[in-house]
Fold each of these.
Amino acid sequence: MRRKKPLYTVNELVSVLRHSSEPTILVEGPDDMMVYRWLKQHIKPLKASPMSCGGRNNLLSVYERRNEFSPVKTVFLADQDLYVFLGIPNEYSDVIWTAGYSIENDIYAGSTKLDDLLDEEELHDYEKLIEEIIEWFAFEVEKHKKASDSKIDIKILYDNRQPVSENEAYIRMNHSDNNTCVNVNLVLGKNFSPPNQNLVSEIKNDFKLKLRGKIIFAVLSVYFNDKNRQVKYRKEALYEIGAKPVDKHRYMKRLILEINQKLGNIKLD
């Protein structure tokens, strides 16, 4: 699938902000805009406008030019991605970063409801699959850290005829009339090699925050949308179930507090 072009270029985003007089909350993309709408009623002034930057690179590029629109109150929200392992650079210390790898991680880590929606057999299979994915993910983290590339993803094959390269890991779904839930397997690429076990342990001990959230929700969606399941949940529904009520969610509350602080609505003691 061809990736959509950002709605605005960095120059256009900076130009919009130069001519703005309203407080603005800059986020990476559409999923973050969706989460912001849930937080909005707890953010004052309510007229603070959200702006999607079309990705983290664009957002950080706009942040680096914030002196060009300094009269405007702005807040920058960004996913940590690999910074969750590498540490956040000092030059981005004024950005509000997710607690985990991404906003999806924050949603998942602060919720107990999502796992509870899985039945016993689904939960057992899901936890087993997550352990396997963590091993593969640690291998990918090591590789991507060297290449400074933060986009670690995995393909889910809903149709075994979908093409994959020999070095590409993927999740294969198998449906059987004998199973009450879908059978899901991780298939590793030929280039896989056992990762550093200290890194594996680090991710495993805090996987809700450190295993990329988009992967977690993609796997959850496989189980929640199995053809044999009576009650199904789309990915967007899972986000909402996991995040709400936002004023009682540990990581959503943190975002609300930090946004209000940046906008000057809350004074630190």
Note: The chain is about 45% helix and 10% strand.
Amino acid sequence: MSASASAPLVVRDRSASYARQRPAHAQVFQLSAIERARMVKQGVPARAVQELSAAMGLPREQFMRAAGLARSTVERKIAARGMLSESESEKLVGISRLIGQVQTMVQASGETAQEFSAPRWFAAWIAQPVAALGGLCPQELLDTADGREALGNLLTQMQFGVYA
């Protein structure tokens, strides 16, 4: 079954329940670049910021700062039950993709513990300096597409033991 078959990506009614339509992190990771681009262009509901920060166990303000999201703008959109801009949506989809990559890596290892939380592991990991990033904390790279790409590459290196 494809990831897109279980969770429609087209949001026809912007007031519809996003929870019902939002793909899980692992599904976002497994979507094609075109499907993710479609999600970004349609916009992600602002309340997804609340959901993702809660899943990660981070205060919303800390999450928005790391993601490079303007707090007042996002808070206004959350209150109005609005949609994030294309730029804001791209950041959220990108972070969800990274979390999905972690979840997929753990599942592929066969070491899946029921209590393992990919969002919480990711939140802890991004807060610690990483030698392979020149001592930067991964959260310093979350706000740009190139930074998120570098983090995805690093996670892949970690998975296959070529961590430098």
Note: Residues 3-159 form one domain.
